[in-house]
Structure formats: structure tokens, C-alpha cells
TrEMBL record:
It comes from Mastacembelus armatus. The lineage of its organism: Eukaryota, Metazoa, Chordata, Craniata, Vertebrata. This is Immunoglobulin V-set domain-containing protein. The keyword GTP-binding does not apply. Keywords: Glycoprotein, Membrane, Signal. Residues 34-129 form the Immunoglobulin V-set domain. It is found in: Membrane. Gene3D superfamilies: Immunoglobulins.
Amino acid sequence: MTLIYRTWKKNLHLETCLLYVVFTVFTGSSAVTPVFVQKGKDVTLDVMTDGFHEDDIVLWRFNTSSVIVTFSPGKEPIVSEVYTGRVEFPQKKYSVTLKNLQESDSGVYTAQLIGSAETQTVAEHKLTVDSVSSSSDSCNLTVTCSTQDSDITSRVTCDTTTCHQEGGERSKVTTSGASLRLYLVNSTMNCNHSNQVSWTKDTKETGQVCPQFTGKNKRRSFCCFSTRCLTRTHDGKLISQELWNNSVNGIGD
């Protein structure tokens, strides 16, 4: 189980805050790790180094093709020319920090271990770089309910009193024959996944991510919130939920 909070503030005309939350519950083999970063910020990508040998070579790749950096035994890391000035190395071995992220940096970042016998993937992060959009009187959410082989995305808009799902309930039958549903009940988003052997449901209260809807925010502030929940079902399927909120609340000065 992993629960990560990242917050920071910057004094501008508005008080700015950013909160990212990643909640993960699963067992078994490693999966792609979702990472959410605001445009212009930095991110650190880690590798679990258990079982590595001194003569191993580690490569970080972007979208399986472009090499970002190469770690070779006894040598300084070699950074590809296109990433010069944008990569730093934290204390943790083989980890990298990418600087000043832009929307074009969204994609899959993979660390590959090149050993004497085989090449294997030791870390995989799906990075989403989000540019800020806002509204003074509403909160817009993009909600994705997904499995390993399918997903449903829907938009939800909340004001101070109600929430509305564009197009109503969304549903789909996946390629594996499972059923996937995404729907809004009052102010709660529901993500249902069912197949022949199991049934799983994830929920999220929109009031937790929309200050306009709760009416609890009494200062002028901007908040960006992201949540992703992953749950592995009995037959190994992975179900997830993402909620994004970009809003400006001007209630009370």
C-alpha cells in the first residue's frame, strides 16, 4: 500500500496550492506506476535496486525508444543530448529527476536492467503532465475507470449545489468479457468492475476534491487534485480510478 502526498505553495496574486494523491493496493508482480505532475514542475523516478549486480547496466527510456540516461559500472551517468540540463541524480542509485516538465513529456518511462544473461524491465512509470485550467464558479473533473484491457472516461461538472455527469452513465464490456461501469450517484462517482469470479467497486466523493461543492474553502485559492486507486481482483485484473480537479475558488476574502 502506498499513499503519497505532494504539496507546495507559491505567493502570487492568489495563494497557490497543489495536492497530488496516489493510493495503490495490489499484490503480485510490479505494475505501471501512475505519476501526476503539474506543468513546469519536477519529478523523481525511482528504481528498486534489490538483486542488482556491480556489472549491470541500467537504461532509462521514454516511450520504449528514446534513451534518457545510461548508468554503466564505474562511470558517470551518460545523459542523452536532448535531455542535457533537464536531468539530475538524487542520492538513490539509478533514480533520475526530470526538470521543468512540459505536456510533451507525458508518456511511459521505463528503466531496463541489462545484465550478462538477459535484459529486464525493473521500473515503469506512466507520467501525466497537467496544464492548469480553472473556473471561478465550477469544478470540472475528468474521471477514468479502467482495467488492464479497457477503460471508460467521463467528465463531471460541480457547482456549489449539484454535480452533473456529461452523457450520464458510461458502460463497456472489455475484451476479456468483464463489465465496466462509471456513473454518478448524487455527489459520488462509482467505478464498477465485474466478471465471472469477482465484483469490485471504487467510489470517490466529489466534495472531497471540489471546494465549490463543499463550501468549506473560505479563502481565495487555486487547488489541483489528482487521485488514482488501483485494486487487483481475484483473477488478477487491475481496476483503477483517476479524478482530476482544476479550480479557482473565490469564496470569501
